[in-house]
Amino acid sequence: MDTIAVVNKNVAYGVLAACGAQTLVGASAAVSVLLVNYPVLGGQALRYAVATLIFLMIARAQGIVLVKLDRRDVLRLMLLSATGLVGFNVCILLALRYTQPTTLGTVIGCTPIVLALATPLLEGQRPGLRLVGAAVLVSLGAAIAQGFGGGDPIGFLLAAGALAGGVLFSLLAVPLLPKLGALRLSMYVCGAAVPMLLLAGILADGSGVVRMPTVQELLALAYLSLLLSALAFLLWYSAIVRLGADRAGLFTGLVPVAAAGASMALGTGRPSGAQLVGMALVVFGVLVGLGAKSASRPEGAHGDLRRAARAGPMR
């Protein structure tokens, strides 16, 4: 009974963490509008630099020391940062030049399906029919909620690159979490992204890679740094620790739901009938998938993931 209670509590914390992370991601769409005139890559570099400093302060306050990484860990960490943060942002930036935002969102919305298939395959297991089916429902609901859109082949290819980056942000974290924990991993990933983004920004914008932000831009950058980067990263990696990457991936379908909710809260939009149907489908898919077995949950292939949670929030 004690074991069942611990597992149920673990899952409950994971659900709350995943919901919180993806709600912050979805709500950030309304905030990001304030940064349309700010250098994108330079702004991302500032955002992750501030988040890294926040993680350092939290680690010091909690007495969490830095962990020495071996060569394999460093390579995996650099790949995670290069694909899950830098590559993801660059692909989104370029994709929007060739395709509609709804198309980009629909492609990225396939993340639950990819994670439901890839996570067990990487563990040498068969994908679970129930989890894959739930992921299809979530992705379909997300597409209905935000619209399917259109675009040219280049746009779809770049959107697929953003999808790959989003998936790798979770998959590459799984083997690192037992050693680093959610807090250290978030700090290392953000810190590694800063020089990459600055270099990409210099190549793209030259000396205009950063500039003094306006008051509105400063507030938007503060939100993205404090809530979207620092808090959302911690919550997301804590969710992976407790749910597994495949089950946690279902909650990425909440992004359009949260975006619609943020628009309603700000008075900039009201959900249509199609959006309400899509939202209901997302919620139903998540509920169905939570009852499935995860290929990378703490009590599964990575049993020591339970200890990884101690370095993050929701302890």
Automatic annotation (TrEMBL):
UniProt keyword annotation of Repressor present: no
Pfam families per UniProt: EamA
Membrane topology: Multi-pass membrane protein
UniProt keyword Transmembrane, yes or no: yes
Key words of the record: Cell membrane, Membrane, Transmembrane, Transmembrane helix
UniProt subcellular location: Cell membrane
Domain of life: Bacteria
Chief location category: membrane
Region (Disordered): 296-315
Transmembrane segments: 12-36, 48-67, 74-96, 102-122, 129-148, 154-178, 185-206, 218-237, 249-267, 273-292
PANTHER family tied to this protein: INNER MEMBRANE PROTEIN YTFF, OS03G0707200 PROTEIN-RELATED
Protein's UniProt name: DMT family transporter
Protein species of origin: Pendulispora albinea
